[in-house]
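User: I'm preparing a small set of examples for a lab meeting where we compare how different chains pack in three dimensions. I only have the primary sequence for this one, and I'd like the structure in token form so I can line it up with the others. Please keep the answer compact; I'll paste it straight into my notes.
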Amino acid sequence: MLVIAPRFDEATQYSYKWTYNLVKEIGKPFEPLFIHDATRENFEEKVGKHSIIVFYNHGDEKGLYAQGGKEYIIDKNNNHLLKGKIIYTMACLWGSDGGIDTWKKGAKVVWAYKDVFAFTNYEEELFMECANYGLILYFKTDMSWDEIYKEAIKKFDEAIKKAKDGWTKIWLRHDRDALVCYTESNPPQTSKCMLRRIAIRLLGADVAWKLKKAKIIGMLLALIGYGIALHDFAHQVWELKGTSISLEGGYIGFLLLLLGLIALLWCED
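Assistant: Understood. Below is the structure token output for the 269-residue chain.
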């Protein structure tokens, strides 16, 4: 397990402390990239030796920040190194884009937040418990990651009930709703690619993410052409018989074409 925890401002004082509590609770061997060791070069050198990558620090849509916050330690130019690995993060926004791209490039599990991760410093223990809970469950139970995600949501709900301050409750709800866990059986439900978004809406995320872009384009062109051809055929039937609803061989052919297209779309690439 490779554990990355920069520390360079007030917020990261807390995330750094949470990291120590996490590895202490897990009680498993790990290799640290803490403070000044949390560099892009060190990550790229050491990531290949580990199947689990933990990151606690600042992030944004594009990447996760290295020590000092001036460059990314992980972004779209090197996240292919996470292929086949579990990456567990506590960072703002990365789950909205960078985490999705990491999952697309073959990461086994991406645990992240699609919005900012906020907390109150007067009840920060509740936030720490919720942020750490997923990885603790992974090491201490036989649950799948999809099950762990559901339990983590319950943990947030319990923390909301325990919280004494109104702002703590608000931010716990916010962080709970921002948490995502991308797995093979639970793919991202959105995409920045318009074609992918259309495919997700039409076919569902499980199918749409398995399609290559060329296949999505082909699917859309086939559907458009199918619609035009069906419209013209129905119009000709109406001109001949005064009604478009008629038992014609052409309609049977269109039905078979549609069934064949659906079958092709559900096939693996």
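A couple of notes for your slides: The chain has two domains: 2-188, 195-265. The radius of gyration is 24 Å.

User: Perfect, thanks.
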